[in-house]
Every structure is written in C-alpha cells, then in structure tokens.
Amino acid sequence: MELNQKMYAYGASKSSIREIAAYGSARKAEIGAENVYDFSLGNPSIPSPDAVRQSIERTIQLPPVKVHSYTPANGLPFVREKLASSLCRRFGENAANAGDLYLTCGAAASISISLHAITNPGDEVIVIAPYFPEYRVWIETCGCTCVEVLADADTFQIDTKALAAAITPRTKAVIVNSPNNPVGTVYSAENLAATAEVLRSCDHDIALIADEPYREITYGAVVPWIPSIYERTIVCYSYSKSLSLPGERIGWVLVPPTNPDHDPLIPAVAGAGRALGFVCAPALFQYVLADCVDEPTNVDAYAKNREALTKGLSELGYTYIEPQGAFYLWVKALEPDANAFFERAKSLELLPVPSDSFGCPGWVRVGYCVSYETIVNSMPAWKKLKELYA
Ligand code: PLP
Fold it and tell me: What separation in angstroms does the CA of 123 have from each of 120, 126, 139, 147, 198?
C-alpha cells in the first residue's frame, strides 16, 4: 500500500531530541544512570504541586459518568470561566472571556490548531531561530512553508530588521516563543513592540502565535502579555511545564477579545480542533484546572540548577546566554560544528542537544530540568570536554 510519505518520514526520522534521550536511556541501562549526564529532554523534574494530586483525588470521587464523559469541544464552561477570570486578574479586565478559550491537549495541540485555523496551503509562517523543532512539522502539515528568521546574534531577542526582510505577501503568521526554548530568553516589551510595528506596517494582516508554555518559569524577568502589544495575537498555553503535567496533555488556545479577527477565529479554532480529531481536552484534567488555576509554579529547583550550571560552566570558560526563563542553557559549542562538538561530549557521557536541530549552528542546548546531582556530578566531564579543545 502506498502510505503518506510525509507522515512516514516524520515517524521514521524522529526528533533528534528524542533520539538523544533514547540513547541516554540505553546508555544508562548499560553503564548506570549515575554515569550518564542526560540534558536532552524538556521533561519537568519538579513534581506537580500537591494541590494537583488532591484535586485528582477529589475529582475521581465524582460520579464516573460526569468525570469521564465527553465535554463540549471547547471545554467545560465553568472551567473556562475560572481560567478567564484568572487571566483577567493577571493581564487586565479585557484579557479573556470564557468564550474566547478553547481547551486543548497541550501546547502542541494549541499550536497546530491555531496554525490550521489561520493558514491556507501555500502560506508562509515565520519562526524565530533557534526554535522548537516541532514547529516545522506542524507548519508543513498545514501545507505551508516554515521560514526561519535568525534571532539577534548577541541578545537572541527578535531581530526586527531580519523579520521585516523575511516577510512576503504570503506571510500569514509569526510564532513567538517566550520564555524561549531553547535559549531561555524572555523577549522584552520594547522588542515585542518593535516586532508589532514591523507586522503592522505590512500591506496585509499577519497573525502572531504566542507559544507560552514556559510563562511561569522565570528567574525574576517579567514576561510581557503580548495581546496588549500586538492586536492580532493568539495565545497558546499548556500546564505541561507550569504544573509539571506534560503527560496529561492539557492546555488552551486563547483568541483575545481585542483580536480584530476574533469572531471568525473562534469557530475557525473549533473547526481546526474538530478537523484534527481532538474532540475535547482530557475531562479529568479540565476539573483539575478549575481547582489549580491559580496554583503558583515552584521554580526553586530550576533556579538552583541554573545557578550551579552557569557558575560551573563559566568557571570552566564556556560561553552561554544567561537564561531569563524556561529550563535550558544555550551554550556555545567549542568548535563551529555543533554536531562534532556533541559527539565529543557524548564520548564523555554528556548529552546536550546540538543546535542544528533548532535551526541555528554552533551551540548546544543543555536542559537543566534534571536532578541537582546530575549538574554537579557532570562538571568533571564538562572540564574534560573543555580540555579536549585546549
Ligand atoms: N512549545 C515549546 C516551546 C515547547 O518547548 C513545548 C514542549 O516542550 C511545546 C510547545 C509543547 O508543549 P506541550 O507538552 O504542552 O504540548
């Protein structure tokens, strides 16, 4: 049978992050977990708050037919009410109404739904490189072209000149991810305002998809609320990182009431969710959200890891970008070819992710959502790696 070759290729090639993680697991089984320093995956290492467990225990006492039923496609109304009120408290009274939210199976679903809602085949979608590699898969699945625009080489903020140069009559949307995976940058209000100006100055309308699963994971930085900076913004969120629930698949799409395309976008988002076969977000976790919507995110362990990793690597003479959010450190490879650098790191049981996977040469991503011991115990290997380049 002739299969869909594009889908076959996506499945057969796998993401390089997952390939490195699979290698890490196999290697741990071979030589012992304590001897492998796997910095590849973005799986939160901080456990979910106790409030989540308590809510699950309470919720499963409800009649099973109630808890495990289909919900409305956009989510349970009382849950969306609570989420919208929370957003209004945090970002202004006009931030969201219950009807503007569409609950999803995580940010991945939020982004693919938003892309399907906005684009037509043949359109172009701009991503700011380095970028989360799955964007390309989701963009191409819409029949669109993924256009990479390199971030500013020094600050890793959005390079607005390069952005302006990349826009064509086919540009339909820009994906902006802040706090950023893989660099850890938080785009400043000024940088976002300049980005908004570039988008507004075009002859046609361009949407901004704000991918924000790391919004709560910051180290003192303020993450600007993009809908109040650029009107044609759609916000994609999930609780994968903020509540450490990546396996439960729960998040939302928000079409802010201030978006000029709001009225047609609401059914288009619902239509995209339907077309992609999502049906509804997991019902049990919709209930949990209602209980945990204002639960603070605990970043203490990430902050401690970040401190130990940056201190250790800077003492060894590595160059990196000071992360303001998320749980990744962007470290300059010690040779121009990040893959060659990765191979040398791998030979010392260090497993970062080479930056080519993120559309940018010459760096590696070190995920510090690991145990503190992993960071501390990895330092002799980082030292040996540096010595290989002496
Ligand atoms: N966007 C970015 C930047 C991510 O890093 C991730 C996951 O790591 C996602 C989206 C997908 O998140 P989710 O697990 O909520 O689908």
Answer: 6, 10, 9, 10, 18
**Using CA positions, which residue lies closest to atom 7 of ligand 1?**
42
b vs e for 68-100, b when ≥16 Cβ sit within 10 Å of the residue's Cβ?
Answer: eeebebbbbeebbebbbbebeeebeeebbbbeb
Q: Distances from the Cα of 19 to the Cαs of 23, 36, 130, 141, in angstroms?
A: 6, 15, 19, 22
Question: Does the C-beta of 48 come closer than 6 Å to ligand 1?
Answer: no
Locate the ligand 1 atom nearest the alpha carbon of residue 239 and give its number.
Answer: 15
Distance (Å) from CA 63 to ligand 1 centroid? 32
Alpha-carbon Rg for the chain in angstroms? 21
Nearest atom in ligand 1 to the alpha carbon of residue 326 is 5
Nearest to 321 by CA among 154, 158, 160: 154
Please list the pLDDT of the chain residue by residue as tens digits (390 residues): 999 999 999 988 878 898 999 999 999 999 999 999 999 999 999 999 999 999 999 999 999 999 999 999 999 999 999 999 999 999 999 999 999 999 999 999 999 999 999 999 999 999 999 999 999 999 999 999 999 999 999 999 999 999 999 999 999 999 999 999 999 999 999 999 999 999 999 999 999 999 999 999 999 999 999 999 999 999 999 999 999 999 999 999 999 999 999 999 999 999 999 999 999 999 999 999 999 999 999 999 999 999 999 999 999 999 999 999 999 999 999 999 999 999 999 999 999 999 998 999 999 999 999 999 999 999 999 999 999 998
- 109: Cα within 13 Å, side-chain hemisphere: 29
Structure tokens at 295: 């639960």
If you search the block for the tokens 């145990």, which residue do you land on? Answer: 371
Place of tokens 């361009």: 206
Nearest CA to ligand 1 atom 2: 132
pTM of the predicted model over 0.90: yes
What angle (nearest 5°) sits at the alpha carbon of residue 228, between those of residues 222 and 233? 105
